[in-house]
Automatic annotation (TrEMBL):
This is DUF7779 domain-containing protein. Its main location: endoplasmic reticulum. It is found in: Endoplasmic reticulum; Membrane; Mitochondrion. Residues 1-20, 806-825 are annotated as: Disordered. GO terms for cellular component: endoplasmic reticulum; membrane; mitochondrion. The keyword Mitochondrion applies. InterPro entries: AB_hydrolase_fold, DUF7779, P-loop_NTPase, SERAC1. Pfam families: DUF7779 (PF25000). SUPFAM superfamilies: alpha/beta-Hydrolases, P-loop containing nucleoside triphosphate hydrolases. GO terms for molecular function: ADP binding. It comes from Talaromyces pinophilus (Penicillium pinophilum). Residues 648-718 form the DUF7779 domain. Keywords: Endoplasmic reticulum, Membrane, Mitochondrion.
Length: 849
């Protein structure tokens, strides 16, 4: 065997715990002698140390065998294949030799006269070795974690962790894979309550720190039902000593020289993950802090966290990236610094870590602050709940925000309540916080409630900013996963405006964007929702389909008998209510409370009898719903009027336009009737607001649609504010100016506008002369158009009514009588024509002039 100064250390596993360490040492030496070559028996210098097994210390022991001068021939295969193993028979069994040190290896036996105070785990860097990376290059080849700490920290269980970090190998492991492997091994070596609550110090070099960071981030996000060794890991971890950790990535261009061959090497994916431009490291970096200084492989910007000195000690070492973790003597400056830190950790950690676990036992359990009970008769919305569930399934991996938007009364809040209950049922360890987000005061009230149920310290301190206090608590992953529901977040201005009076940041900054939390928003305002979710998903909550509507109606009116006739009435009723859940719930509750005098058939009859009846039913609040925010009116009309008030406050021109639209037929409202003097950009902004609130829909051909029940609500709102008559007069003034004469070239335009004439001519009793003349102009032009279309009877009625209005405004009755006789004769004469296209010109406008 050739003589070499460098020693070679092998790990031997499979030694039985049945024998004392001295006997095991002798048996192992005999086994070595049997396998040595003849000349090796006399020349070999072998040192054998028996240490406990990290995995099964009661049944197995491990040996660290150091060959000074060279590797014996029978183990030469492991020099060629350092990732392999070699078995040797010993007695009736066999033992295993390796030099890769994969998994955990304990380096010395703690002093049995005192209890173990802490576990120390060392993780080597990229292309390093679990044992050799920490071994000095001096003539004695000291491995400080073993040779020095065994004397200086005899009451610690010191271990190294090995993994396949060789870049030259053809493994395909990623950071995620390495992190998972580390967590699995930790489960095996900390498998009792005493071990899981024992203080833990990590020592990591380079890429080993990345693996550790990733592992701890994932451990913080685990659930209580996960393995206790992992759920307790963040509480047990007291300190970390990082040597040259590439927090922002390694300088991959230099490391690529370690690879054999071209850029298609299997390790290329790993290099991309640890590069200085790594998205993965950037994501983890937002949740991770470390210490240490970088010398060679890692640039200076990546080396420091810029934390306060009481959190991060920055210690420069005068060595390159590899040598910074190798100490040849106990007097080495770097070792003395590390030892001082470890001794202080060992002194302070037991009390601190014990307190953490004590606090954890007394920590309030996750609960829900949803202020409404679960609805046992909840109907439909499975597609919406499924979409939200799919997005929020990523809690623990990334932050997700989802918004439910739609018309008031469409069921956004009820769907959010149902989802919140299901989320708690599927994850009992998750907090669910419900916050009324209609204004800043209520949002702050919601945060105060979070502070109360979570028992956050200093919540009663008047000097504390409750928003900042709760925000910090929510950001701390140790408190567990959470779901926050922001209900009725219709006005996003309250989130984005600076509070100059209090000197407080915008409220949106107090909504955490952490991976262990998600936010669900309900809003009537599509744009407000989009501003709050950012790149999250906005889900449009549509009206129910017929099947869902009928199920809801029957749930609210359980006494109804499903006969053929009643089913048809039910279908007619939910259609009349436009399949809106709140309107259906109102109707069902009203019918149920007045049964048997009021049936579905009777309700439907009364509903269709008049618009005033419809308004009465839609305003009725006799049946209260305790599952709704008491500050928000229950009736569908009152609910929509909240939207009108909000829009009027933020953008008065939008409510002006909505009010004008409500005067026309609800379908096919042409832009030319409502645009007025707005320029195109102003008009588009106004339309966008109304569409965002789902009060209107924009169609092709510059037309708009308004829900019938919304139209009723707007008219009622105008009536309450004594503006209805003014808007009716304005609509007639616009129509008189817009509806053209009956010439052939105007027919298409006349047809488009004619459907709105009946709406503007409703309620024209007791109007002033100017309004009468506008109505007369509309009717005269409509009469002309109808006459040219061959609809003579209606044309005659329109024309006569126009003359009557004109006569009412003018005392020249003789002239009006002569005009009537002229019209009568003209109509009789023209009724003889069968070809409308050759009718002679006819204009009531001219007669009225």
């Amino acid at each position: 065997m050739a003589s070499q100064r460098k020693s070679h250390v092998f790990r031997v596993t499979g030694l039985s715990r049945d024998k004392p360490d001295e006997d095991l040492q002798a048996s192992l030496q005999n086994a070595l002698n049997e396998n040595f070559a003849d000349e090796e028996r006399s020349q070999s210098k072998t040192e054998i140390t028996i240490v406990p097994s990290c995995y099964d210390s009661d049944q197995e022991r491990v040996a660290l065998v150091q060959f000074r001068g060279g590797v014996p021939q029978f183990l030469s295969e492991l020099r060629l294949n350092p990732l392999g193993d070699w078995q040797v028979e010993i007695g009736d069994g066999e033992i295993n030799f390796d030099c890769h040190f994969f998994g955990f290896t304990q380096l010395y036996s703690p002093d049995e006269r005192e209890p173990v105070v802490a576990d120390i785990i060392a993780i080597a860097g990229l292309d390093g070795h679990a044992y050799g990376s920490w071994q000095g290059r001096g003539n004695l080849g000291r491995m400080w974690l073993r040779d020095f700490l065994s004397k200086d920290l005899p009451h610690c269980r010191t271990m190294i962790y090995g993994y396949n970090s060789k870049l030259s190998s053809h493994g395909v492991n990623t950071i995620l894979d390495y992190g998972r492997e580390l967590m699995e091994e930790i489960k095996k070596i900390r498998n009792t309550k005493e071990l899981q609550q024992r203080p833990l110090f990590f020592i990591a070099h380079s890429f080993g720190g990345i693996i550790l960071a990733h592992c701890l981030v994932r451990a913080i996000q685990t659930m209580d039902e996960d393995h206790p060794a992992i759920t307790s890991l963040h509480r047990a971890t007291y300190s970390m000593i990082f040597f040259g950790i590439p927090h922002k990535g390694l300088v991959v261009e230099d490391i690529q020289q370690m690879l054999a061959g071209d850029g298609k090497h299997p390790r290329e994916k790993l290099l991309q993950q640890i590069s200085s431009k790594s998205d993965l490291l950037d994501t983890d970096g937002q949740r991770w802090k470390r210490t240490g200084d970088f010398i060679t492989t890692v640039d200076a910007d990546s080396a420091l966290l810029q934390l306060p000195d009481h959190v991060e000690d920055k210690v420069p070492l005068h060595a390159d990236h590899s040598m910074m973790v190798k100490f040849d003597t106990r007097n080495a400056a770097g070792y003395r610094t590390v030892l001082d830190k470890l001794r202080q950790f060992a002194k302070d950690a037991p009390a601190v870590v014990a307190a953490r676990f004590t606090q954890a036992r007394h920590r309030p359990q996750p609960c829900s602050t949803v202020p409404f009970k679960k609805d046992p008769m909840f109907v439909g919305r499975e597609d919406v709940i499924g979409a939200v569930t799919e997005k929020h399934a990523a809690i623990g991996q990334r932050h997700e925000r989802v918004a439910l938007v739609g018309l008031a009364g469409v069921g956004k809040t009820q769907t959010a309540i149902e989802y919140a209950y299901r989320a708690r049922e599927s994850a009992p360890d998750m907090w669910v916080f419900w916050i009324h987000a209609s204004n800043a005061a209520r949002l702050e009230q919601g945060y105060q409630q979070i502070a109360a149920v979570a028992e956050i310290p200093r919540q009663d301190d008047m000097e504390m900013n409750i928003l900042q206090l709760v925000y910090q608590w929510l950001c701390d992953a140790r408190h567990g996963r959470w779901l926050m529901v922001l209900d009725n977040a219709d006005n996003d201005k309250i989130f984005f405006l600076n509070n100059n009076v209090k000197g407080q940041a915008p409220l949106v900054t107090f909504l955490p964007q952490v991976p262990h939390g998600s936010i669900l928003i309900t809003s009537r305002n599509d744009q407000a929702a989009r501003n709050l979710v950012g790149d999250g998903q906005v889900i449009k909550v549509e009206r129910m389909n017929e099947k869902e509507s009928l199920t809801l109606l029957r749930a609210r009116n359980p006494s109804s008998q499903s006969t053929d006739g009643i089913v048809e009435d039910e279908k007619a009723l939910v259609k009349a209510l436009e399949h809106l859940p709140l309107a259906i719930t109102q109707a069902g509750s009203y019918i149920a409370s007045r049964s048997p005098r009021v049936t579905i058939s009777r309700y439907l009859e009364l509903f269709h009898e008049s618009e005033s009846n419809q308004i009465y039913f839609l305003e009725h609040e006799a049946a209260k719903d305790i599952r709704r925010d008491p500050s928000i009116r229950y009736a569908i009309i009152r609910t929509w009027q909240l939207s009108f008030e909000q829009i009027h406050q933020d953008q008065p021109s939008a409510t002006d336009l909505l009010a004008l639209m409500s005067m026309f037929d609800r379908q096919g409202i042409p832009e030319e009737l409502v645009r007025g003097d707005y320029d195109i950009l102003q008009f588009e902004d106004i339309i966008a607001t109304l569409v965002d609130y789902s009060l209107i829909q924009s169609e092709i051909n510059d037309q708009f649609i308004m829900h019938r029940l919304v139209q009723l609500s707007v008219r009622r709102w105008l009536e309450i504010h004594h503006q209805l008559r003014d808007l009716q007069a304005q609509s007639r003034r616009i129509m008189a100016r817009t509806f053209p004469n009956g010439h052939d070239e105007n027919w298409a335009r006349c047809r488009r506008l004619f459907v709105h004439v009946r709406s503007v001519l409703e309620n024209t009793s007791d109007i002033d002369d100017g309004d009468e003349l506008n109505a007369a102009t509309i009717q005269s032009n409509c009469g002309w158009f109808l006459f040219r279309q061959g609809v003579y009877k209606e044309a005659e009625a329109m024309t006569r009514r126009a003359l009557e209005r004109r006569e009412k405004c003018s005392p020249a009755k003789g002239n009006t009588t002569r005009q009537k006789r002229h019209i009568d004769g003209h109509l009789k004469e023209e009724r003889g024509y069968t070809d409308v296209g050759i009718l002679p010109p006819f204009t009531v406008s001219a007669i009225l002039a």
